[in-house]
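Hey, can you fold this?
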Amino acid sequence: MSIPLYTVDAFTGEPFAGNPAGVCLLEGERDADWMQSVAREMNLSETAFLVPHAGDGFDLRWFTPAVEVALCGHATLASAHVLWQSDVIAADAQPRFHTRSGVLTASRHGAWIELDFPGKPVEDAKAPNGLLSALGVRASYVGRNAFDYLVEVGDESDVRAVEPDFAKLATIEARGVIVTSRSAKDGADFVSRFFAPRAGVQEDPVTGSAHCALAPYWGGKLGRTAMVGRQLSARGGVVKVRVAGDRVILGGQAVTVLRGVLV
């Protein structure tokens, strides 16, 4: 049986930018080892697996080439894009995703897709031994949530200049590390990069779930609920964010670059 498989560039309106995600449309459950093997074969930062949910919507799981993760923004954005583009759901339908992080929804607004995600604010934290030396930075703030460390540095040039020691960074007990500062350019309020060697991803091109921490963090510092984040990876990407109580609305675009079948 052939299984539809897509590669979608997320958080970008142009191909070969943003963050590529695999999207695999399944008719029924498959075991985790099989999904992990497919994700390893795809070798993208995340591959999403969708199965029709017994009640409504879809069960959604995300795998890096190394591990399953509890929350992923760009592969959810890519999943919604594929469901609409392939006519699995109607153009005006709102997909519901049942995940390890609760029910997530998506909606279309012209060329943009909005995701309703849980906020993941950070709390003040002491930098663990080796974190700042692995990043090679001086921190003005360090915070921690259930997933990641967040490190604020002096300015955008400091974010761009980070060259982590990935072997050392992989010893830090967290999914990943967000490095961030205010934006130096018009069109964005803050910038970031995201490193997750412990999860099998050295640098993630654009990280939706990291913005679930960045949105409340920068919202509190800037006194705003709606902002624009730019991720400064080599591919780059833009994430619109809006804080809505304990939720974060993530906005992005998506482009399909590959359609195929898994045989």
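Oh, and this one too while you're at it.
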Amino acid sequence: MKQEADDLFRVLVADDEQAMRQAYADVLAVPCDDPKGADLADLETELFGKDSAEPYGSNLSLTVCRQGDEALAAVRQACSKGQPYSVAFLDVRMPPGPSGVEVASEIRAIDPDINLVLVTGYSDVDPRKISEIVPPAEKLFYVTKPFHRMDLQQFAAALTNKWAAERDLQEAHRELMRNYVKLESAHHELVDAKHRAEAASRAKSEFLANMSHEFRTPLNAIMGFGEIFRNETLGPLGCDKYREYAQDIVEGGSRLLQIINDILDLSDIEAEKMVLNESGFSVRTVFDRVLADLRNAADASGVRLEAGMDAGLPELWTDERRLNQILVNLLSNAIRFTPSGGTVSLTAHQDAAGDIEISLRDNGVGMCPAHVETALEPFGQVDGGFDRKHEGLGLGLPLSRSLTDRLGGTLCLESELGAGTTVTLRFPGHTVVADHRLHEGQLPG
């Protein structure tokens, strides 16, 4: 199979003696156009002795030159084609042209990466002086004649492999730098995108907060007048239909106000403007209040409410009103998505780690596990037949999770289609309560 040009390692030889040029070609196992001189055998014996070596290999391309000027032209041409030499063997004395040292200095200016080997049969050239003329020292080598055939082969192989490894390292470095530049650019783009997204989020939160405040003022007036009509505060309406319409106004206004409050709370959490009013309180007190508030809604839907907790459950130290809001949202959802005859249970206990765990379970319609994350996103509504029959913007679950996070707890939702849903809240237990009281300057009782 023919050797591809890009797979070849190129070696340059410059020597004014024809016999020496042929000797290089024979030693490196590469064909040479120069005819073999009659005295080549004796010269090879003088230079390399009688030892022999295996051919260097077919991946070597040899260029032989008679004078230094030819070598310089060959190096320029090779570099212009993108096919540089890995190593150049230069005779120190090549009359009548420039010396090997002078040629080496000019070659180094053309190709900084080439390995240069100065070869001479004389001892009048100081290697230290040459290294000052042709730096760097790690790419400059000095060999005296005579030398053995195998030494030359191994020297050429070692320098070629060194050159190839250095080129691979340089290319790897360039590739690394290219990737670094790309990553830097991508990083700046991501930072800019993050800043734009944060600015957009702040603008959205401010808009929602302003919109919610603007909605609440007229809505409170509507609900207030609706209650006046419903309660006939200023006198009888004289028509049952008017009383029904007044009730619809109050109930519709209450639902709309709850949606507005939820949007406002989400906006405050995203804008980090929500302020907590922490205190120590009993979980049982919150349970009793929530169950009392939602008992009528459960009875109207034919859903049974159950509750239970460990005896001696320690107090929580957090925002009681916000925990009440979380449980109302979760319990309302459970009642709404549990068919008549179903059960919703609310429990609390302290685990071995001292954390307080509050769980809400229902045997309602549930959802596919793959849809859980969607249900926890703001305005995310899981597509399905049953939930399409119910009102809501999908704010209850995401608001509950955001509020729980804000309180320092965690919310976990597990659900199975047709088998119900379990929501678990986990809060720090009595040790955290004590820490908070001490921090507030209060001694635990």
